[in-house]
Amino acid sequence: MQRPTDIAGMMRALEGFMTAEGKARGLSHPVRASDVFISPYAKCGTTWMQQIVHGLRTGGDMSFDEITAVTPWIEMAHDLGLPLDPQPGDFRVFKSHLSWNEIPKGGRYIVVLRDPVDAMVSLFRFFEGWFFETGSVALDRFADYFLGERDGRDYWTHLASWWAMRERDDVLLLSYEAMKHDLRASVAQVAAFLEITDDATIAVAEAQAKFDFMKAHETQFDDHLTRMARDAACGLPPGSVASKVSTGKAGAGKPLVSDAVQAAFAATWTETIEAQFGFEDYATLRKALEGEPG
């Protein structure tokens, strides 16, 4: 058994990742008003936000094998053999990557937005050595795949669906870049959304969401439960290892891709997000999100 060495092979492997039955079971799970769904697009800060919210609801409990075991991925939990209940803390937390269009309704929702090029580069690095052989797929070719995904699960549909819900009381949007710039303020914003006011709890959640802490506990954030459960179904060899804890420097993706790829991302943004909401680029949208003058 070998890893794919091209995009076509990667896409065939991905077909085995999630089953329709497993997704349907997760989406039919009864929702409580207190439930929290953390649903960024892939590689936009999901694991980071899971750790923040779990720390806030438990006062810093770290007695879990891997974060997905205590904040289960709702559309994948059945396929991973993980229960959705019970969970520690005063409320349930679910990971997701679903758009507003698909996610179960009736709970509370936290979504982290991220520059699309940075998200694409992070996804490339995450897949390399897992869904395709290291060094076998060029970054620009992966960018073409990322841009070509227009099946309702793509970055652009996801962003548009959540942006349209940003004024709802049960929806909190943050940017990955703001979390990098001022983690304390971001954790405080999440705590306020969840109506958590205890200063000690907020301080612990912030401390345990810092890079050095999460890096020191890297195996608790590395998706090993997902890989053990789904590698065979995807036709992938076992033993892949990848960290989800990285410095994730904002804006680091653009220097790594060609001018043609940057232009293609800009054109796609214009066709989708700017056409719907009037923001000429991600930076302009982020300023609007964070209340900064354009």
CATH class: Alpha Beta
Strand pairing plus helix content: what structural class? mainly alpha
Number of helices: 15
Cα-atom radius of gyration: 18 Å
- Name the CATH architecture: 3-Layer(aba) Sandwich
Globally, the shape reads globular
Number of structural units classed as domains: 1
Biggest pleated-sheet summary: 4 strands, parallel
The residue fraction in helices comes out at 40-55%
- Strand percentage: 5-15%
Summarize the structure.
With 294 residues, the protein is mainly alpha-helical.
Task: Walk me through the structure.
By secondary structure, this protein is mainly alpha-helical. The protein has one domain: P-loop containing nucleotide triphosphate hydrolases (Rossmann fold, 3-Layer(aba) Sandwich). It is built from 15 helices and 4 strands. A 4-stranded parallel β-sheet has the order 2-1-3-4, with helices on both faces. Helix 10 crosses helix 11 (199-207). The radius of gyration is 18 Å and the shape is globular. 37% of the residues are buried. It comes from Roseovarius rhodophyticola.
Short key terms for the protein model shown above:
single chain, about 290 residues, 15 helices, four-stranded parallel β-sheet, mainly alpha, about 45% helix, globular, Rossmann fold
Secondary-structure topology with pairs:
Layout: H1 7-15, H2 20-27, E1 36-38, H3 46-58, H4 67-70, H5 77-80, E2 93-95, E3 108-113, H6 116-127, H7 139-148, H8 155-163, E4 171-175, H9 176-181, H10 183-193, H11 199-207, H12 211-216, H13 224-230, H14 259-277, H15 282-289
Parallel strand pairs: 1-2, 1-3, 3-4
Helix pairs in contact: 3-11, 6-7, 7-14, 8-14, 10-11
Keywords: Transferase
Domain Sulfotransferase: 34-226
Pfam families: Sulfotransfer_1 (PF00685)
